[in-house]
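Tutorial sheet, problem 5. The two components below are modelled jointly, 943 residues in total.
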Amino acid sequence: MWKRLLLIRGAELAALALLAAIPLMVDNSYVLGLLTLLAIYGILLIGLDVTVGYLGQVNLAHAAFLGLGAYAAGLSVAHFDFGMLAALAMALGVGVLFGTLLAFPALRLEGPQFALATLSFSALSATTLNEWEGLTLGAQGLQVTRPAFLGMTLDAPGFFWLCLLLLALVWLAMRNLLSSQWGRAFEALRDSPIATDAMGVGTYRHKVAGFALCSGLGGLAGGLYAFNFQYLQPQSFGWDLMVILLLGVVLGGRKSLWGALVGASLIALLPNLLSNRELFQVISAIGLLVALAAGGQGLLKKTTRPFQALAPVVAMGILMAGSLIVENTEDWRKAIFALMLFSVVVGLPEGLMGFAARFLTGLFHIDPPPLPAPASLDAVLPKRVVDGGALLELRGLERYFGGVKAVDGVSMTVRAGEIHGLIGPNGSGKSTAVNVISGLYVPTGGDILLRGKPLPAGSLFKVARTGVARTFQNLQLFGELSALDNVMVALKDVYRSPLPLVLLGFAKGEEKRAGAAALALLELVGLQAQARTRARDLTYGDQRFLEIARALARKPELLILDEPAAGLAHPDVTKLTEIIKRIHERGISIILIEHHMDVISELCSVVTVLDGGRIIAAGTAEQVKRDPKVIEAYLGMSDDSADAAAPALAG
Amino acid sequence: MYTLLIVQLAVSGALMGMVYALIAYGFQLTFATSKSINFGQGELVMLSALFSLTLIDSGLPYWLVVPGGMLFGVILGLFVERAAVRLSLEQKGEGWILLTIILGLLGFSAAENIWGRDDRPFPTPIPSDPLHFFGIDVTPLELSVAIGVLTVMGLVELFKRKTLLGKAFEAVSADRDAAQLMGISATRTIQLSYGLSGLVAAMAGILVAPITTVGPTMASVLILKAFSVAVVAGLDSGFGVVLIGLFLGALESLTSFYLGSGWREAPGLVLLILALAVRPNGVFGKASIRKV
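Model answer (structure tokens):
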């Protein structure tokens, strides 16, 4: 524990002290310029990493936000006589404002659409900066004066220290934020937006917040950029810079503050690396060797596909050959960026720092931070008093897809404290009914009442907030998060600290409590030993159990289990039955969709049978098993062979 | 006279819009099979046009240059699929966005160094003396763009509907997994769609080159508008791109007239963002049902 803290914090402090001390040791304006640029790029890339790394979206607008921030700072000094701090706040604010504005249309978008929206925004912003000559002077360029900082005129080292100070503050705030519920929520959003909403976390506010944050940091970096170069031109913030920024984040390593810093140093130094031919030859040779070593190792251990191993070697080989043939490397800078980026994206997706972090934790034997002691289950899931009243009522529920009546007038009541089985052949409308109740689909007709009050229609998020939790037939775990984080992110009634306190690092107490509570839930489903395992590395059965633990983190009154036993091996089915019994003992009502009739018979007091979107039978498991209509629905047999079919159903 | 001028501007713009529609159609082809598009498609348009120019310079007749350029486009399309798309589709990720951007950058840099940074004219046998229709001037060159675009799109559609290979294409578009279970190789079909997309891009480059001149930057604004057309119409809208292409072409021509040519890209970009916000599946696209 202490070793971990000492090494990690020590490395951060040492890096900061070293950077701060360089201007005292070296009196060289060129070096100082590079360092200042490094600090500015550091802030910029930490921001970009929020969308590219944590939200997992290709963001092509970051260079544009740098530009908007730069112009905002420069113009507010020119027109309103702002001081340094006010101008920087202005730059930050403009970034946040435009980021929020863009986030709203981009909200529902994923992958290519998000990339296109940001691409259009940056093209639009370039057009505006170029054409609004009355304000920006267009292509002619804008002269910016560096204003006083709290009444002091900053010389070059002074300005560098200001940039470094801001970088350190951003670093601290982002470390606090990203290790809190916010960081988890960003990653949850990336891995499964549907589950993020269904777990009551909310895709909406987190996507807007993440993007606004990213853009705000872009704007802030822009303000510093303006006061550093003191001359702005619209074309500086175009496509070329955007590609370089992506190179920085990807090469340095995603989801890592250190990665952003390493990336920033690389892209600040890049022009120098390219202009010196001998140096460039050395670099491409190193690149080729790394690609060969990594590719060869991957092939031998069979951890990578042949393409993944060979393509970077080919790309680096071309780079090496090019460095020997081409006279003027500057002319080919775009191709050089492209080859480097290509090799990293294909061959080293975790980036330099991802690779180094694994290597260093192994070298220094750094253990992961210790787990808190699990809380008592009674504190996390207090026993509910069960009154047997109507909990969930469906009245004539309908959901049509075009002409297909997937759910066609279903009325049923789930009483508090019961395990209500919902069965039916494939395509009978069970999953659709659950998807309507949980808010994924808007009902075509009918009512859904929870304790007599209508349930919000068509919003996973709002339904999740009313105390209904669900699992998914096709698993919707947050694959990159650990089992513990999967439960923690869904935890209800724990995270109360407002954003400023989180940024200042005052949310550690509730983090501890959340961890303890989540561990108790993992214990309930028998996963406490795998708390630190990434969800996608769990066995299939354990993934199913993790989904249940995560749904329980919502502390639900009603839990909907959508085919929890599908694909489970027999021992796991037994374990599942035990888990469901334990959950039921806590007074949680359950709707259980299942095909395993023995599970249904063992657990359910009431069973409803659907076929063709309608209810064909209801009663105890024994009653419905003998119901001729049920047997016909499952086996397509007539009444007289019903007795022969009953044992088959029981299996 | 004034209305006539407006109509004239709109018609010329709309004819240019056909080129955007053709490039957007190329996006549709790959999106149908693989839900991916080539973000470096503009470079494909540009490289094919430059290659065709080299063919012309080497003395090849125009009727041989066109298939030559298209073949080059097909090869580039196949290369993009192999180098940038296949791996991330196998990993079910979205790495292809970044990788196709990267390949585009590589292509751009190669063009700058091989063909130079300057824009050059693209000779064509089609005359540019205007014809008059009801007081509006239309050059045969502009007409050739419209005819070429519709011909290529028609032929590709015919191929998809009438040949066995085309049926496989439609099957993979409808349901990749089911098609694979029926013995259709999804990988081969996606490859085919990238090849076709490259062909369409090359055709767009050859058609537009005589009007815009040829150089490394010739497609950088073209591609933004093609994105707009594809998104506003919907990435599965079929011939919907033609209508939106005509509309956007006319709109930008008028914008350029009223606000100045610097703003001509703006309406397309605004429309794209609005479309994504209001109708992410496009005006002619089908809404998809989320399944869990």
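Marking note: Confidence is low (pLDDT under 50) at residues 641-651 of chain A. Full credit if you identified this.
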